[in-house]
Amino acid sequence: MKVFAVGNFFAPPTPEQRDAILPKEAPHTLRLYLDGLIEQFWFRTDKPGWVFLMNVESVDQARSTVESLPLAQAGLMTFELTPVGPLAPLARLLPAE
Hints:
The chain is an alpha+beta fold. The protein contains three helices and four strands, in the order E-H-E-E-H-H-E. It has helices at residues 15-34, 59-67, 70-73, and strands at 2-9, 38-43, 50-55, 77-84. The longest helix has 20 residues, at 15-34. The two termini are 27 Å apart.
C-alpha cells in the first residue's frame, strides 16, 4: 500500500540538536529508501519538514518506520500519515464490460 508521511517539526531543532541528529537522520532515511519502504521523498516548501511516499504493508508499518527516525525518536518531529490508492471514480469513465 502507498502512504504519504508528512513530517512536521514540533519546534525547529537547536543548532546543537541539528548537529547531533542530522548526521544520523540522512543515513537512516537513505537505508529506508534502499530497502524500498520510502519510494520518493521531498523537502516541504511551505515550512520546515519533508514528505515521504512510502511503500508499506500497512499504516501501522508506516508509523513504526517514521517513528524510528532519529528526529522522531528525539521528540522533534511528528508525521501525519495518509493512505492513498488509485483514483477509483475514474472507473466510471470506462465502458461497461
